[in-house]
Specification:
With 274 residues, this protein is α/β, with parallel strands linked by helices. It has nine helices and seven strands. 41% of the residues are buried.
Length: 274
Amino acid sequence: MADFAQQYGPYAVVAGGAQGIGAAYAQYIAARGVNLVLLDNAGDALEQFSAALRKQHSVKCIAIELDLGSENLLQVLSNAVGSLEVGLLVYNAGLADVGPFFKKETGLDFELKKIAVNVSGVFLLTHYFAKRMLARRRGGIVLMSSGAGLIGSPYYAHYSATKAYNIALGQALWAEFKPYNVDVLAVAAGMTLSTASAGFEHIEDRSQFQTPEALVEEAMQALGKQPLLVAGEQHRKNHELSRQLPPEQLIELMAQHAIENFLQQAPEQALDGD
Ligand SMILES: NC(=O)c1ccc[n+]([C@@H]2O[C@H](COP(=O)([O-])OP(=O)(O)OC[C@H]3O[C@@H](n4cnc5c(N)ncnc54)[C@H](OP(=O)(O)O)[C@@H]3O)[C@@H](O)[C@H]2O)c1
């Protein structure tokens, strides 16, 4: 516990930390005596969860309601927490969907927002906090990615591309920051029971799901030891098997995954929208 707080304290920032996987990270961190800054757009959940953490773990917990995709993100952050010593950044929030590249329900604005939250926000927070960690010669950064970021995944195409960004950045910085004693880990989650599982009710086989707590336990054990964690035993086994396939076949399998779990049939591209 002391080691964790020494390497990653006195404050940790969890972006998207009020619910689901993000909340499980916050619980893990608070239980080890590290204070928290939780960034989230779910105002009520954020307030309630922060109050519970303060009470349960006697840590400080600063709750900041914001949109991680907003243009003034860094300004808001530096005003609110610029003076704090942040030893751990977990960038958890992500905008996800499944369907054809051109969708009926959403258009260009939604896709640009996906870049803002899944890519720009990750870059901005990593750039901001890592510089201070490197100067102190200690710290940690966890970037949440997805199995869909491990290879171009049809019907998750743009999401998949944003999640590949997190893997590439995490793996590269793992090596660059190692001499500075700053641990970096990218986490490729499989299907995880979280706020996103509102879309998973129809999937009968629950054995392929991981709980947020189990994912966080694995991630925190892997932080400082490896650049990338494929989270979940079954997900890891599938990933190992998939590496033996030619890429064309694996890409088709990812399409199958989207169709079987979420779409019923290969969807048409909606060419009428923006
Ligand atoms: N769950 C899975 O099966 C799964 C699988 C693969 C990868 N992942 C990755 O795991 C991470 C966690 O995903 P999750 O969907 O399971 O979420 P989660 O950890 O259950 O919740 C994320 C939190 O972030 C908040 N948030 C989302 N967009 C935000 C924004 N723009 N600004 C501020 N806060 C924001 C959410 O609030 P609202 O809900 O109110 O927006 C929610 O409170 C994501 O990076 C995702 O890509 C998840």
